[in-house]
Queue: 3 jobs
Job 1
Amino acid sequence: MNSNSKGNMNMYECESELRRGPWTLEEDNLLIQYVSSHGEGRWNSLSKFAGLKRTGKSCRLRWLNYLKPDIKRGNLTPHEQLLILELHSKWGNRWSKIAQHLPGRTDNEIKNYWRTRVQKQARQLKVDSNSKKFLEAIRTFWMPRLMEKMEQNSPPMSPPSSSSAVPSSPAISQLAPPDSLCLNPVKNSDSNNILLEQISSPSMNLTAVKNQPEIPIEESYYNVGFPSCYNDMQGQEIFLPDCHVAEIDWFGEDLYSTFWNTDELWQFRK
DNA sequence: AACTTTAGCAACCGCAATTCT
DNA sequence: AAGAATTGCGGTTGCTAAAGT
């Protein structure tokens, strides 16, 4: 469909000479220079005065999603994945709201993550990604595993020296399984090494609280409560499930193709 | 090796909300 | 107050590279 070679005008250009499609290095530089000297905002006039043949909308998007200095690159950490799963369960497709809790990540990136990674799992399970069944599968299999991996890779806690010290977190795998959610262990591979490479958040601040009484989440998108609690990257409390960790190879080579053993999840489709 | 399919992601679109004139 | 301009959001598209056949 690339029509760059077709005549003088390709599909990304129109009569008014507005450019569309991928940004060039020159365009990026123009935008960066202009924003650094004039600041963000007034995107339509910005594009005009910066000499960019782009719509203001396009400039804004390019800046916010790609050029802004504090944009994070690379894979989402388990902590970030966990936050996305949790916050999506509360707010649904409120991508920008979710992104506010993940500094450096854009709503577009989170949306893409959800569509390409999470919804894929739902498709494989043949369940609706917005269904309670799918949410329960996430809650039972995926989130506890992410929490466990976060714990395994978080730096050792120093002994509490003051009353404001963060409480040490229990091993999630030691938490008592809910009666209906205990699973048979599945062989674990050497996939932890892969995960270790993915964890890059030194600010990870997991403070899972064992035996915390169940606290309902206001405005819960699925109306499902998460009893345990930890802090997001801005210190805000987030509640998570207190449930058993199945020994599923969540982080193997096929991390992004199959998060769980479909056979074991069959129960969620019943 | 060539072709097809899939995954990931950047960018676009339409619409709604907000701000400006 | 009203219309225009701008900004923000969520859904969707299409390109590219990787994986599969």
Job 2
Amino acid sequence: MNEKDDFALQDFLPYLLNRAAEESSLGFQKHYKNRYGMLRTEWRVLFHLGNYGQMTAKEIGSRAKIHKTKISRAVAKLSEKRFVTRTRDENDRRSEHLTLTPAGEAAYKDLREHALEFDTSICARFTTGEVAILRYMLRNLAGIEP
Amino acid sequence: MNEKDDFALQDFLPYLLNRAAEESSLGFQKHYKNRYGMLRTEWRVLFHLGNYGQMTAKEIGSRAKIHKTKISRAVAKLSEKRFVTRTRDENDRRSEHLTLTPAGEAAYKDLREHALEFDTSICARFTTGEVAILRYMLRNLAGIEP
DNA sequence: CCTTGTTAGTTACAAAAACAACTAATATCC
DNA sequence: GGATATTAGTTGTTTTTGTAACTAACAAGG
């Protein structure tokens, strides 16, 4: 039906990347969804705060490349759940500093444990060298500095 | 603020995969979105039909792991745009065979051109060996047979 | 045949994302 | 100082997705 061509859909990188990302997200989702009723943006925010410490919504947004409306709503949810506290910056009263509460810290540590396990189980299918190359390439593609 | 730990968010594969996928999607999106007003699922369906020839919605769904409701809506849109025609299977009148119209074929070829270019530009940042490893790993992660 | 079960695809409704418009605080420049 | 522009974050509205329930056609066992 179709003349021969050097294009194959299953080799197209954006397609492959999306399929792989969807698949891996699905595997990890159940941890934060079932156990804490979180959305993807919520755990990303939680992880950023847990991983890097106190931050403003703005900083999380620019680091994780998440739109500010998504952050705003995620922070509202996390605040409802008493996982983060918001304190106004006294020098610039527009922005507020987000910090994990002890409960938020506990959730973060629990999820981090599962994340680490999940990550390890993925890597187990490949050699150490392959995984290193994958990470390096994905960071490059994602626009994250090494 | 946070005790040392061997977990770093920017190394977590589901996170990296999603970031890389989003970034690369964004780059390609403008072609099918601006030029043809398509959604992601629509171009995927179009590409499947262009790449593999006539298929049913079911087949596309299982190949691309897209839920049937998304396929259904994408096919409806593509049909409105006169990019695909639907013909009932006479032996099993539940399913219908989807085929690209000449207009659909033209759109596919045009987008395929851009896809190829885009893919090439991505690969240019890496060595041939790295790209081969990346594709192999992503196919594995996505659950696509080599 | 005729009940029961399965499958292809659609539709309806709820959840989430995208986008635009908004408020309130600060910065700039005259 | 005061008009104007920017910035941090929020809210409202529209699209898009996810999920469940549905229709219509077929299949199988009795």
Job 3
Amino acid sequence: MAMSSRSGADLALLLLGSYRNLVDEVVRELATRGYPDARPSHEYAIRAIRAGADSASDLARRLAITKQAAAKTIAALVERGYVTTETDPADIRRKNIRITDHGIGLITEGTAIFDEVRARWEGRLGAAELVELETQLAQFVGDSPINLDAPGWAAGQELR
Amino acid sequence: MAMSSRSGADLALLLLGSYRNLVDEVVRELATRGYPDARPSHEYAIRAIRAGADSASDLARRLAITKQAAAKTIAALVERGYVTTETDPADIRRKNIRITDHGIGLITEGTAIFDEVRARWEGRLGAAELVELETQLAQFVGDSPINLDAPGWAAGQELR
DNA sequence: AGTGTTGGTCAACCTGGTTGTCTATGTCAA
DNA sequence: TTGACATAGACAACCAGGTTGACCAACACT
């Protein structure tokens, strides 16, 4: 019996479930590779920093969160040794963020694992099908205020 | 130029972005229809209650969260008038949950809106394509501890 | 009875955000 | 040069939606 049309609520749960499944796997694997306390938000933040957000306010704008939230995130990153901060000599107010080797390691491994999991899915669906799926999802995301480059909305507690 | 293979991290963001897009729309629309303070978790919880979880411990098991968390959720539902509780005459410890008309209204409208949004997506993708997408997502979710019927993991702060 | 299980509650904590307020510094224009 | 405004950051309090841990009261079973 072709199950045909599911409910909209189920669709939502499918989307979120897939996301969490993917991300949980990445976090788990990251833990076994020497980053036991890494959270998805750390990855996103470090990526944003690497992409040019070199101060708290900058990061806040990039992630589309408040600067207070950005400051907290940075504090967490410093605590874990993923970044360091030092006062900008040219502007005493600013604290420039620099990613440590450990931080680089995190996003390098993170990216690799993300891609590994994606490859696994690709193996199951077929390359063309996965690309199509991504294209379709991009359509859903496209017509919205949501900005893939500013995944501040990606927060929540994604792992338990 | 066919953009072909995206990164695994992007895939994750696409999934989450689609979810939030869908859910945000539902919450927004719900607000305009007389449920301004409804949160996704409320909907999930009321659904679970309607499906038979008539006590806090029950709800906890069903949602796969702690009973304390379930109790908090129920308190929020009572506060908003979506459910009422009364002590079970047959077992003084239990507090039976009953969904109010307002609560029924919430999930009725919620379901309708979810389906409307899904229908909109269907209109864009085509019916067959959407079903295929759902089937593919179900595959990703299927091989995991994630249980669509126990969306406790769906929490996080899904809306900003 | 006595022992163990179950339902619920209190309290403290965590994460990742939010507002609101404040100071210190920088910038720019009159 | 000064005075107005913008910006960087920090502090404090709060919120949602979870978590642990400790507990008590009520039920169930032998």
